[in-house]
Amino acid sequence: MLKRDAIASYIKICTLDHHDHEDDSRIRGLLFTVGCYMTTILVSVCIPYATLHCVSEVYNLRVSTITSEQLMLGATFEKKTPPGNLTTKAIARYREDKQGNEQWLVANLTSLIYAYKNCYARVDGSFGYIREKAADALHTIKRHTQTDDLLFSVGYKHAIHKRLDVTYTLLAGIPTHKDTGFQFYQYGTGHYGIGGQMSGILKNGGGHAWIGAARCVHFFNAPAQVPLTASCIEVDSALGNLVDLLLAFYKNFLKDHSIELGYNPTFITNLYTKPVLDPILPSSTIRNSWYSIYRYSFFKCGHPMGIGLSASYGFDITPKIDVIAKRNISCWLSYTIKF
User: Fold this and answer.
1) Distance between CA atoms of residues 204 and 259, nearest Å
2) Would the pTM count as exceeding 0.85?
3) In a 3-state reduction of DSSP, which class is residue 123?
4) Judging by beta carbons within 10 Å of its beta carbon (0-12, 13-18, 19+), is residue 111 exposed, middle or buried?
5) In the chain, what are the domain boundaries?
6) Cβ density class 185-216: b for 16+ within 10 Å, e for less
7) Peptide bond preceding 275: is omega within 30 degrees of 0, i.e. cis?
8) Hey, what CATH topology would domain 44-338 get?
9) What H or E segment, with its residue span, contains residue 48?
10) Cα separations (Å) of 3 from 15, 24, 39, 240?
11) How does DSSP classify residue 20?
12) Distance between CA atoms of 142 and 187, rounded to whole angstroms?
């Protein structure tokens, strides 16, 4: 109640006409200080939603799959590979943080790739439904549907050796909505992003291969609304930098079947808001994820096609912070056609 009264007093005084309070500057200054302090306390529980709690599948390196690996489809059929590649994925995700808050996501991710010789262009888009349950006394439930960012990629594939292919990629992400992370668990970042990626496939013969990727994306600052008891304030929100690494073992067997086992650590750095709402929150975090994929390729109606079933498990590492993910479980079903 004390927090609410302080905030209400602060908002009320800030919205009254200045000339009616010329003699109350000392009182206004005191209430302003108290209000700012209470504002910091109140919105501190919201900050993770704009930093650690937003989810994006187009930027998910293990789910979206590196382009050079997607272009492998059809090679086992010993036929001329068509230039177009369309992949759609149905994704289900469950997340729980150390405070007991839970989030469920059901989403669709679609990737369109066009390859010409050693060059390619790609666009990824997604939309999803999110249900979140708070670990409060009322077990508050929120539901909403949002679109993810649009991620555009252009790249060049280079054969360093007959067994080693390396792909260099430039990335540009465009948000489809404003940053709503302080209001609820958002889908998509709400920030423009730009970055680069390098990936490679080392073929060992006998259907074995090692897959590796490294990616760095910088997100530009964007305004975000922070809801308070009686009003909203706007802050300058920074998602900072995203660094992804991926290492996986690939095995093809019975010609048309393959499995992939991999590890995908994600590093998020330089998180902050202006003004600073809570200095004790982390400016960086690390997410560890392990995943497995089974794929079956087939040739029908003159087109190489493939289906896949995947699952992953992960958790965040940030000492003494309860808002990070205690567990993050995902599974997705994919269908690919080359045309």
Assistant:
1) 15
2) no
3) strand
4) buried
5) 44-338
6) bbbbbbbebebebebbbbbeeeeebebbbebe
7) yes
8) Lipocalin (2.40.128)
9) helix 47-50
10) 19, 22, 8, 31
11) G
12) 13
| Amino acid residing at 210 | W
Q: Is the distance from CB of 131 to CB of 143 less than 8 angstroms?
A: yes
Can you give the pLDDT of all 339 residues of the chain as single tens digits? 333 443 343 333 333 343 444 445 554 454 444 444 443 333 333 333 334 458 899 999 888 887 777 766 655 444 566 788 999 999 999 999 888 889 999 999 999 999 888 899 999 999 999 999 988 888 889 999 999 999 999 999 888 888 898 999 999 999 999 998 888 889 999 999 999 999 999 988 788 899 999 999 999 999 988 887 777 888 888 889 999 999 999 999 888 899 999 999 999 888 888 887 765 566 788 889 999 999 999 888 888 899 999 999 998 887 556 567 789 999 999 999 988
